[in-house]
Description:
By secondary structure, the protein is mostly helical. It has helices at residues 5-8, 24-75, and strands at 12-13, 19-20. The longest helix has 52 residues, at 24-75.
Amino acid sequence: MAKDPLAEAGLHFDELNKLRVLEPEVDQKTRELKEECEDFVDKMGQFQKIVGGLIELVDELAKEAETEKMKGFLSG
Length: 76
């Protein structure tokens, strides 16, 4: 089988016959990784919103508990 001089030089043609430096398999894996990273970033953003809401709720409960303690202290 004849060796492809372009492939030996690290050059490849894609499905649109554009010259690429990355091998098609590497390019595909890179695209998949990019999509996975975008999904991860989206999920992390959702997680941060949920945790932020939880922190606000706990802060409110702590303030209410402190208020009730002060009421008990003053009336006791």
